[in-house]
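Students often ask why we bother encoding 3D structure as a string. The short answer is that it lets us treat folding as translation between two languages. Here is a chain of 156 residues written in the first language.
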Amino acid sequence: MKMELKAKKKSERKTNMKRLVTRWLSMAMVMAAAVFLLTGCGSTKLSADFDEEKVKTAAQEAIGYMVAGEYEECVGLMSEEMQVAVSAEILASNMETVAGQKGAFQEYKSSSVLGQKNQEGTDYAVAVIVAAFENGNVTFTISYDKDMQMIGFWMK
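And here it is in the second language, the structure alphabet:
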């Protein structure tokens, strides 16, 4: 009987680990797609096509949707390319993992906005927002095109 329980617990741990790895791989694919979009980027001064405060506000809105569990709304802020790569289910899975490790959202600690260009010279804005959670900080890096559509979303 004890051997069966040990085997069952071991099997459950393996299943849980596979789920966790799958979640992280999904997010890695999302990040890879965004990196592909921004290949060859270099940090630059924010383009005059962007308003720093609007970029910060848009990033905090996206993060707000994530911590509130409103994943469809967050997907709605994304470019068409990002919407193909990222579903509300992927966002939910990744946010649940982060929340499981870090606890509940507390406050925004810091934010900054910088500019980037891709190989074609197209300007992008990147917001880096550090958010405090109960058990530590999470850094959100969110990229926007000139139409203020989200083209990259990372949580670390």
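Translate back mentally: The chain is about 50% helix and 25% strand. Keep this in mind for the problem set.
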